[in-house]
């Protein structure tokens, strides 16, 4: 059985030469024999890759030689097979499609809460200011089926672009509360918080590192089920172990 290292990472950062960055990233992935998906856009980079330890760390060293990606946060997990069939490096308009030109996540990060702080809030039943905390799941209905935080507000949406309308339909539930938005790795909840701020929700935060980051720090505390991932592992449990132990191809 192979020992495969998987990484998930993103960073919102201004990239004026997105085409050139995509070319360099693809060359690096090929050189290190990695498979997975990398999206590059003027607003940043989004990475899901798998390979050997030497391949992954070699790629990360080359990536971080660009100051724009130096110190990028990376989530690691292991399994016995490569969960991607091929390599895809794409130049996109957005690294996560939201279609809201008012937002500029590459210029300023959304406020965040750490997994440790969120767990404390959930233990107490309120945040540090005594406000009720509402957990808001920004993922689609297919993902939510595999698991979510206990008591989280979820929506029957099929894609991320439907989220603003869904939130608007439940704004009375969120009014006056501290809202913690979450997703798989952080990218969707970060963008959604920026949108919510423009829509009049002042006390909203992203969960730093998303569900996978929470699993790394807090395990399955206050979480029910698994976290869906977009590869052949299907979903990960709180120990970052895959639902599928061997590839189905």
Describe this structure in words.
The protein has 249 residues and is α/β, with parallel strands linked by helices. It is built from 8 helices and 13 strands. The strands form 4 sheets. A 5-stranded mixed beta sheet has the order 4-1-3-2-5, with helices on both faces. It has a 4-stranded parallel beta sheet with strand order 6-10-9-7. It starts with a strand and ends in a 13-residue tail after the last strand. The model has no long low-confidence stretch (mean pLDDT 95).
Task: Itemize the secondary structure elements and their pairings.
Layout: E1 4-12, H1 18-31, E2 35-41, E3 44-51, H2 53-63, E4 74-79, E5 87-91, E6 112-113, H3 115-124, E7 133-137, H4 141-144, E8 147-149, H5 163-169, H6 171-174, E9 178-182, H7 187-198, E10 204-207, H8 210-218, E11 223-225, E12 227-228, E13 235-236
Parallel strand pairs: 2-5, 6-10, 7-9, 9-10
Antiparallel strand pairs: 1-3, 1-4, 2-3, 8-11, 12-13
Helix pairs in contact: 1-2
Properties at a glance:
249 residues, alpha/beta, Alpha-Beta Plaits, Oxidized Rhodanese, domain 1, four-stranded parallel β-sheet, 29% helix
H/E series: EHEEHEEEHEHEHHEHEHEEE
Query: What is the CA-CA span between the terminal residues?
Result: 15 Å
Instruction: Output the radius of gyration.
Output: 18 Å
Subunit arrangement of the protein: single chain
Write down the overall geometry.
globular
Q: In a few lines, what is going on in this structure?
A:
The chain has 249 residues and is an alpha/beta fold.
């Amino acid at each position: 059985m192979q020992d495969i290292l998987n990484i998930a990472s993103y960073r919102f950062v201004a990239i004026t030469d997105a085409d050139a960055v995509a070319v360099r990233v693809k060359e690096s992935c090929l050189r290190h024999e990695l498979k997975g998906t990398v999206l590059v856009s003027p607003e940043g980079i989004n990475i899901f890759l798998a390979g050997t330890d030497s391949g992954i760390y070699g790629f990360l060293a080359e990536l971080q030689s660009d100051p724009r990606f130096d110190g990028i946060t990376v989530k690691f997990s292991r399994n016995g097979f490569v969960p991607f069939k091929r390599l895809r490096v794409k130049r996109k308009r957005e690294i996560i499609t939201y279609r809201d030109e008012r937002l500029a996540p590459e210029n300023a990060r959304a406020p965040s809460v750490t997994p440790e702080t969120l767990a404390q809030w959930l233990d107490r039943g309120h945040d540090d200011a005594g406000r009720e905390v509402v957990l808001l799941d920004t993922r689609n209905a297919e993902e939510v089926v595999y698991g979510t935080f206990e008591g989280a507000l979820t929506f029957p949406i099929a894609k991320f672009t439907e989220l603003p309308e869904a939130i608007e339909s439940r704004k009375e539930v969120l009014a006056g509360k501290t809202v913690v938005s979450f997703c798989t790795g952080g990218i969707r909840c970060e963008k959604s918080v920026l949108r919510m701020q423009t829509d009049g929700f002042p006390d909203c935060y992203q969960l730093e590192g998303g569900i996978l980051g929470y699993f790394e720090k807090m395990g399955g505390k206050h979480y029910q089920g698994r976290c869906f991932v977009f590869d052949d592992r299907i979903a990960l449990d709180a120990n970052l172990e895959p639902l599928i132990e061997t590839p189905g191809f």
